[in-house]
Amino acid sequence: MSYATPLEARIAKKVTKAIVDYSLIEDGDRVMVGLSGGKDSWALMQILDVLRQRAPISFSLVAVTVDSGYDGYRHDLISKTCEARGWEYRIVHTDIGETIEELLADENATPCSLCARFRRGVLYRLATEVGASKIALGHHLDDFIETLLLNLFFAGAL
Length: 158
Prior knowledge:
Blueprint: H1 6-22, E1 30-34, H2 39-54, E2 60-67, H3 75-85, E3 89-93, H4 96-103, H5 112-130, E4 134-137, H6 141-155
Helix pairs in contact: 1-2
């Protein structure tokens, strides 16, 4: 069974190497993938699904989305795509956005790190509910650098 494209093959090779080198996924794992709708999380879910079908071990996937409650967030597009691809999918609607606005109403702080912490808490709770043994989040080096700079400029800390 070959990969759909040369790009998919290159990504699969790198992801497989990381999984093997760091024992990220083991036989029988249920991996919960945080699916935000961004390109990183879509790529992660897609490549893990491809690898799941080819792997010499058995593991399952469940995609989850945390809706922070901001106007205009199109979780319907995510759910329709997951359904079309046959992926198990869960969405959790929260009022994280409203809570952050209330907490930071009198401050000039950036809500990014606080929102991320709240979303992470929701993901941990949801992992237990769906029986996940692992959580996979699609982040790359640019995300790391962006977070580093946000912390430096807005929090004054590294």
